[in-house]
Amino acid sequence: MIFGSIAKGVSEISGILEGEDVLATIGAFKALGVEILGPDQGVIRIQGVGKMGLQRSADALYLGNSGTSMRLLSGLLSGQVFDSVLTGDESLSRRP
Hints:
- The protein is of the alpha+beta class.
- It has a single domain (2-94), classed as Alpha-beta prism (UDP-n-acetylglucosamine1-carboxyvinyl-transferase, Chain).
- It contains four helices and five strands; from the N terminus they run αβαβββαβα.
- The strands form two sheets. The protein has a three-stranded antiparallel β-sheet with strand order 1-3-2. Strands 4-5 form a two-stranded parallel sheet.
- β2 (35-40) and β3 (43-49) form a beta hairpin.
């Protein structure tokens, strides 16, 4: 999902589990201006925006309890030309 979001063009991913972590990550990328359709029967379609095509989110990016998404998005967003605030649930917010 991350690579599809920063690629140019359309990516389709099948076998997506519709769990809280995945849905929170989809929500974060939508907030960053990425068009994502689905999940629909385990498939999402991503219209990638290119490496520098992400847009600043008006709100904090909520990642639920997904530590993996928090770490990967921290790295990805640190190279963008805008500031971002990443947040999560109580458990994730207590982690170092």
